[in-house]
Each structure stands twice: as C-alpha cells, then as structure tokens.
Sequence to fold (379 residues):
Amino acid sequence: MRYRRPFEENVAPIDLQLLVTENELMTKSDILPPDLEKTLAAVGERLHSGRSVKAELPAVLAHMFALPAASISQADPAIATAANLTRWRPKPAWYDKLFWLHLSDREQLLRLPDLRYLFIFHRDGRMREAALQRITGALESPFLFAAVAMRLNDWAQPVRVAAFACAKRCFPLTSAEVIANAAASLVLHQDSWGRWGVERQAMEETLARPDVAEELARILCEGQTGPVSRIFRLVLKNSSMDPHLPQLAADARQPWVRAVAVQAIVDMRAAWLVGREWQWIDKSMGRRTRTPKFDFRDIKLSIDQAGVIRAAASDPSPIVRRAALTAVIQHWDGSREAQELALMLRSDPSPSVRERAAFILSRISESVAPHDRLGIPSR
Fold:
C-alpha cells in the first residue's frame, strides 16, 4: 500500500501555513527537556550521516520514557524534528563508503532492537510500521503507552494495523499503573481521533480491566488540579468504573468529581459529553444556540442511594450539597427525607443551595395546603 504524506491531501494553503506554524511552536525547547533535546540532536546527526547510534540510544530512551503522557501530541513532532527522523536521507558519497559502513535507517533498526521505541515517531510510515511490528512485551512507561495508543489513529492505514497488533500484544501485559496514568490524558483527546475504527477496540478492552479501573479511581480520587471531572465523565463510558462510584462520591478531592459521582449514583445512569448540537430558541426569528450533547448508559449495581445523598448534603463543598438537593428534587419529591434535608440546608451559606432547599419546602407546603383548606388533618 502506498504511503501518502499528510500534505498530499486536499488542504487549503492557509491550513498548511497554520500547520507549519504549529509545528514550529511545538519544537521549541520548552517541549522537550534540554538533555533529551541534546541527545536527540546527536542521534539525528548520526542517522543523517549513516553512522550507528548505539552509544547515544540508551540516554535518549531513558529521557524519553520519563516524559509525561500528557505531552504526547506535542512531543511527537518535536522528537521527530530534534532527531531528524525524516523520510529522506542523502546518498553517501563514494569516498565515504571507503572509510566506514553507511547504515540506512532500516539497517539501524535491524541492528539496534531498542531503536523501535524511537522510530515510532519517524516521519516515514514504513519505519513506524516496522518499529511497531518489533515491539513486544509490557510497555515500560505511560509515555510509551501513549505513543503506541496514538498510532492507533495514525494517518497511514498500515501503521494503524501494525499499532493494533502491537496493542493486542502489549496492552494486556502492561501494568495497570502505566495504563491508568496514560489513559487519564488520552481519554480527553480520543473523541477527536477520526481515523481509527476497529483499532478503538484495543483501548476499550484495556480500560475495561478491573485493575486499570481501580488505578484510575485512585488517580481521580487524588487529583486536585486539571480537568479531573472531565476525565471522570469520559471513563464512565466503561462499566468497570461503577464499583468505585461510592468511593469517588465520598473521597475525591475535587468537588466536581464528587458531584458527578453523586449524580451518577442517584440517576443510576452515567453521562458523558459527545459533542454539541443546535437547539432552537425561537424558530420564527431563526434564533438557535449550540448546547452540549450527552450519551448515556445505565448503571446496574446495588448502591445505597439514600445514604449517598445524605452524605452529599453534609459535604464541605456547596457544589456537592447542590448536587444532593438536585437529586432530592428529582427523586424524593415530597418525602420526609426531602423535607429533613431541605430544612437542614435552608440557611446554607451558598445561595444556590438555599434556593433549592426553599424550592423543595415550597413544593411540600403546596402539596399539604389543599388538605388544610379542606379541613383534612395532616398525618
């Protein structure tokens, strides 16, 4: 199958300029640590001249494996540029062949098995494919896992096939800690991956592992900064997270994570954002707006919903207390438990919590008022 470069596709000139600008920004020194950039440059020089990179390779891999998985999209072009992983190499002059053995990139890969980890980032699709075909066993770091996962969405179809086969071999052997640390970043971008099809199965099966779900729950519980609640919603696509919902509702450090867990438990339904859709405001005036679009799945697990709501009503965060009263409005209409929680929170410091408590009490009083007017004693 013929490999086409991305620039061979139908892209407007302005898009090409933007792509070049983005790649230039991504290759700044603040993307890669100075030590890694220096060793990559040394490798690039030797690859360009056809000399063995055996001496430089261990340092490159040590620095590269230490990169955070979240940097994969920016590190990909930066590594390729710094290491001069180009698809075109100059042919050696005849007199150069007299003094040393000139090695092509493919010959380097055959001589140095560990070069496969660097050549995942090669700009030549044939080299990426060959590198992925040679990767076996457990993946050692979240960054390496993210690199293989990203190739499931590679623009070259043969590379995607090789990445899928690599994932089938390596993902089941990779530790839950490595997978969870990488997945926490990858799930934010997977819905924008438009090329993968059956390859998605490799990630779905991996995230369905109970040990991976347990490790993800730990990460979500401990996360204090960043888009933790967005990650939580996305990993809720998989039912393997359901047993950890009570723990997340009670112990997650971010209030939004606790609130999402409470909502999922009360509704017995997981929801996650899948995009946006147009919604009419006034058809006659042609006014419309884009609103979030969610997908859902039912949660089939026995959970003490009432206990979760009561605990959430006493949560230190108004975000979680508000989620508790929203759940009461939706599911405990007019009940004694609803009245008790509303009375407890009617003087809450948060205006949004007070408003919900007042709404619950007003609905209860409205349901009692007709009986009073008719002289029917309350029970």
The longest strand covers residues 269-282. Confidence is low (pLDDT under 50) at residues 2-29, 370-379.
